[in-house]
Amino acid sequence: MPSVFIKTYGCQMNERDSEAVAAQLVAKGYSLAPSEAIADVVLLNTCSVRDFAEQKAINKMKNLIGTARNERRSQVVGFMGCMAQSRGQELVDKLPDVDLVLGTQKFHRAAEYLDAILAGKREQIVDVAAEEKSEATIREHLLNGKSNKSVSAFVSIMQGCNQYCTFCIVPYTRGEERSRTIPDIVAECRELVAGGVKEITLLGQIVTSYGKRDYPLHDGKSGFVQLLEAVHEIAGLQRIRFTSPHPKGYGDDLVEAYARLPKLCESAHIPLQSGSDRILKLMHRGYTRERFLAIAKKLRAAKPNIGLTTDIIVGFPGETEEDFAETLSLCREVEFDNAYIFKYSERRDTPAAIMPDQLPQEIREERNHRLLETVNEIGKRKYDSFIGQQVQILVEGPSKKNAARFTGRTRCNRIVLFDGSERHRGELMDLKITRTGSFTLYGDPAIVNL
Ligand code: SAH
Ligand code: F3S
Question: How many Å lie between the centroid of ligand 1 and the Cα of residue 340?
Answer without folding.
Answer: 10
